[in-house]
Amino acid sequence: MLFMVEMDVNIPHDFDPAQADRIKAEEKAYSQTLQASGVWRHIWRKAGLYSNVSIFDVESNAALHDLLIALPLYPFITMTVTPLCRHPSAIHEDDR
Amino acid sequence: MLFMVEMDVNIPHDFDPAQADRIKAEEKAYSQTLQASGVWRHIWRKAGLYSNVSIFDVESNAALHDLLIALPLYPFITMTVTPLCRHPSAIHEDDR
Amino acid sequence: MLFMVEMDVNIPHDFDPAQADRIKAEEKAYSQTLQASGVWRHIWRKAGLYSNVSIFDVESNAALHDLLIALPLYPFITMTVTPLCRHPSAIHEDDR
Amino acid sequence: MLFMVEMDVNIPHDFDPAQADRIKAEEKAYSQTLQASGVWRHIWRKAGLYSNVSIFDVESNAALHDLLIALPLYPFITMTVTPLCRHPSAIHEDDR
Amino acid sequence: MLFMVEMDVNIPHDFDPAQADRIKAEEKAYSQTLQASGVWRHIWRKAGLYSNVSIFDVESNAALHDLLIALPLYPFITMTVTPLCRHPSAIHEDDR
Amino acid sequence: MLFMVEMDVNIPHDFDPAQADRIKAEEKAYSQTLQASGVWRHIWRKAGLYSNVSIFDVESNAALHDLLIALPLYPFITMTVTPLCRHPSAIHEDDR
Amino acid sequence: MLFMVEMDVNIPHDFDPAQADRIKAEEKAYSQTLQASGVWRHIWRKAGLYSNVSIFDVESNAALHDLLIALPLYPFITMTVTPLCRHPSAIHEDDR
Amino acid sequence: MLFMVEMDVNIPHDFDPAQADRIKAEEKAYSQTLQASGVWRHIWRKAGLYSNVSIFDVESNAALHDLLIALPLYPFITMTVTPLCRHPSAIHEDDR
Amino acid sequence: MLFMVEMDVNIPHDFDPAQADRIKAEEKAYSQTLQASGVWRHIWRKAGLYSNVSIFDVESNAALHDLLIALPLYPFITMTVTPLCRHPSAIHEDDR
Amino acid sequence: MLFMVEMDVNIPHDFDPAQADRIKAEEKAYSQTLQASGVWRHIWRKAGLYSNVSIFDVESNAALHDLLIALPLYPFITMTVTPLCRHPSAIHEDDR
């Protein structure tokens, strides 16, 4: 089951840079593990912005929630969640 | 080069149903041709809405424009266009 | 899997009243069938408005979409869809 | 009498974590007491967000107000309050 | 129990003027009956606008809903409903 | 001459609690003096919110401004000011 | 007593042009009479828009309302009304 | 050439009061100099708000920009700039 | 003096296509005349939208207004007007 | 390929002024280098605001992204990115 999640990241100016770098590294590792597992199917940067558009493939709303709140950058992210489903005109196998 | 395009379709209540069906059939054929060619890489329905999220792979802004204004349903669609690029954490080959 | 769906109904002033009544009667029958089956778990009127808040219990985003677009009043409804999950403080068995 | 209350929680980044945990524990206990009493009829998490949708069953606007401002997390919550009533199509006994 | 209701009236330009006048006369009579009964406690015009701010005194959300949807101008009104309660600084007996 | 004033109060989390209590006590005394004089004709709490709806009866825009900026909580309040006048359907003597 | 009134004019495309011209001529005459009397103190066009910013000098909210609803173009205007008063830094006699 | 400029002032709660007073005094002097010169043609307070509506008479966009960024309170002001021109119904000489 | 003007064009579905084509042809001719004269310095299409971003070089707000309201498509355009001036970092001669 | 980028700059009041000046100087140098290279084709100040409208000429969305996130002021800028293409009415060679 697919969801589009848009994430806008906003780290306060006075946040400790070393700690920010540590959290970003953890975020990257976490994201790549989920991408490798197939759960985080797509991630794109919005050009010019500290924001991404992602497609998640999960079994339930709860599974999506658990994945997202475990993001190391979660406290700094504004999330928009959009449930998706197969479009009647789709011909791609995996555009479920 | 990738773009996210969100399309909200709104056909007026008093529009001729037969003509609407004809336009929708043309739209589907047009969309499937572009999907088959690889230009229209993804299309998903937003659950519950007469809206889709699509990913286009085109050579330029102009190429995207020409594709979109040729949509048979174009006069009834509100478009939101977001230029995308590769995310530094992406591991998928084709999440350019 | 639960979803909150908010529906704002807006029938044009110049729509044929007899046809509107027929559609509303079909909507009511359709809604009550889904309520009886357990899929449409809750429906409340927003006081003073021609709007409702509903809770749906479905197996997937696609199942939700199919239910909603089959609503007889669908062309006159503005939908807002919010995926829900169990709250960590919930004690009610069925607040999944 | 039912009300939908949507709560968006936002604890500042520089708030003392130990105090935050203490307040969250009090919030949970308070919520569960009200759920057990039947006043806080439903609580759901919005998937991906630090937000909930709740249904309260109270005798008056004033009773609702007194319950909400006593929430331990109240200073960190943005509230949206929507008065509800029975929908004419409802068949559930308790969708008052 | 008090509610603030803000009503923005918008009658389409092409609506039959004679019918509009008939509906407005019915609206006025209906409003004055409810004012006389004490249910519609206050009604003010927003200066310069075809809008009013009203205070209703009803026993429940449902009672409010039934009153409002019976307004002859209801199909032409955009409603905003705000539940009120006594302010801790109030000294007026009837600012409940 | 009547004005509706909506006040949303927002005291920063890190503001000294003792000073906040002192300002709130001054605010209450100030409000009750104006209520007693008839200038602050109504004040209601918006249920669930740290906001009020008030009706002021003043001789001019300037008189209203002077009253409002003298509120002890003024620096923490977001104000919305709406000039009112008698509604043609009003029957209450004092709904000027 | 001064008010800023912003007026956005929107005449439907299918409105009879001859009638529109007649109404606009009446509007102009009405406006100029009020300008000559000193009540309509200023009127400026917003560059590029079918909108104006006006300053009215009236004795009360009710006087303002009566003037505005008598505008021949009133049914086609979206109004924004802002009560003004003398600024503490003003040196102009008539910036009351 | 005239411009309407709306200024919303927002000085942070934790800003040094003595410095704030100094800046406000400079702002007042600066404003009055420009008023005396005829460049700052009007300034009104929005009733109840820490905001003003002003009319500037300048030779160019650049002249306006230079005047505004030199305001001592500039860093604390949210500006809205609207270019104006003579209204075809205006009869006042100086409503250019 | 430069202005950015954003134009969103919206021709109603039931507008006569032949008349629409005639107006669009007039619009194009009018635009090209102004471009040739140097007044309409730039015009770009927003990719995917029936909208443009334009830069005008005019002597005054009034000159801009007169140019814009003479656009054959003016009644179908929503305008946003932004006055521009030279940026302190600009090195291009003509980015005034 | 052209993009319009609107940048709103907002440096916190409590940010070290010397460091702010250093960053602004770097920003200016960086901008002028890109202008000289032809990539940053236009930059205009929005009159009265700490904002600019810029036109970039880049080979791809990714090239745009890399340029923008390298701006020394990037952490203090809210960006709006709009992909552009040649307008069918354009006569200027370089309004691609």
TrEMBL record, chains A, B, C, D, E, F, G, H, I, J:
Q: Which GO terms describe its biological process?
A: beta-ketoadipate pathway
Q: Which reaction does it catalyse?
A: (S)-muconolactone = (4,5-dihydro-5-oxofuran-2-yl)-acetate
* Gene3D superfamilies assigned to the protein according to its UniProt record, in alphabetical order: Dimeric alpha+beta barrel (3.30.70.1060)
Pathway, per record: Aromatic compound metabolism; beta-ketoadipate pathway; 5-oxo-4,5-dihydro-2-furylacetate from catechol: step 3/3
Stored Pfam families? MIase
Q: Identify the enzyme class.
A: isomerase
Q: Name one GO molecular function term.
A: muconolactone delta-isomerase activity
Q: Which UniProt keywords apply?
A: Aromatic hydrocarbons catabolism, Isomerase
Q: What is its EC number?
A: 5.3.3.4
The segment(s) forming the Muconolactone isomerase domain are 1-89
How does the record describe its quaternary structure?
A: Homodecamer.
* Protein family membership: Belongs to the muconolactone Delta-isomerase family.
- Name the UniProt record assigns to this protein: Muconolactone Delta-isomerase
State the species of origin. Answer: Novosphingobium sediminicola
